[in-house]
User: Which sequence fits this backbone?
């Protein structure tokens, strides 16, 4: 069973430099990725390598790390409803702004919408999840993530091997797209539906309890890394600001250094 924190332990909310550093490094990778994305898809840079499998793995490493870290940190959250609502609201803001001002590059149900949804969904089932041994929860969550990984494309299976076809009638509208069943005309430059990604979030959540004993985490001992740790600590603000700043910097560079 998962070990519950005492009231004294819950009153203390220590920061873990390892988590801030890892989150900050992932943010730096994301900023660089989006800078290259802007160069290729907005400014027309002829970088064919960015359409390769290697670039896809780069993108996946960023989103996997963010989602796993977010699930992991749910075990540390003291105000999951407030935090979840904040992140979900930020996701809706990104969706609205891009749909209005950048429809060709709109973000519909992006990673912030997903993470906020997962944070909120976990609140009513948290006590039930605490009854599951962490090893079993971790393995089951990751296997379910792997099984549902192809659901956006209409199939279920493992290792890119389709085992079951999903009925086409489920792929109907925006509501079904939010769940994981996008209609044929659905478009988003950053799409993370509840299925399969909620199960990866749960995987991160159970990793927390695998590494936690009596409310204390067994993490590598690190000191805060300058700038990187700061970015990790204020990751939501950095996420919301990075794309307009990157786009603005690239646009100025194209104007002054054509």
Assistant:
């Amino acid at each position: 069973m998962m070990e519950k924190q005492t009231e004294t332990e819950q009153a203390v909310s220590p920061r873990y430099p390892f988590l801030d550093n890892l989150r900050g490094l992932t943010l730096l990778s994301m900023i660089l990725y989006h800078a290259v994305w802007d160069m290729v898809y907005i400014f027309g840079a002829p970088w064919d390598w960015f359409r390769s499998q290697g670039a896809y793995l780069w993108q996946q490493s960023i989103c996997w790390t963010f989602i796993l870290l977010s699930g992991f940190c749910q075990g540390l959250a003291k105000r999951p409803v407030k935090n979840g609502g904040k992140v979900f609201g930020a996701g809706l803001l990104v969706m609205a702004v891009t749909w209005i001002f950048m429809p060709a590059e709109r973000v519909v149900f992006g990673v912030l919408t997903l993470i906020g949804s997962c944070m909120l969904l976990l609140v009513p089932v948290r006590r039930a999840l605490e009854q599951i041994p962490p090893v079993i929860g971790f393995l089951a969550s990751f296997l379910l993530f792997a099984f549902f990984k192809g659901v956006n494309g209409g199939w279920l299976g493992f290792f890119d091997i389709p085992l079951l076809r999903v009925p086409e009638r489920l792929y109907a509208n925006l509501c079904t797209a939010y769940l994981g069943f996008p209609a044929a005309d659905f478009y988003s430059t950053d799409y993370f539906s509840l299925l399969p990604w909620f199960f990866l979030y749960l995987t991160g959540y159970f990793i927390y309890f695998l590494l936690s004993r009596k409310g204390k985490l067994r993490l590598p001992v690190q000191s805060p890394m300058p700038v990187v740790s700061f970015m990790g600590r204020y990751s939501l603000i950095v996420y919301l600001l990075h794309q307009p700043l990157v786009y603005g910097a690239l646009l100025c560079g194209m104007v002054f250094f054509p």
Summary: Residues 1-12 have pLDDT under 50 and may be disordered. The first strand starts at residue 155 and ends at 158.
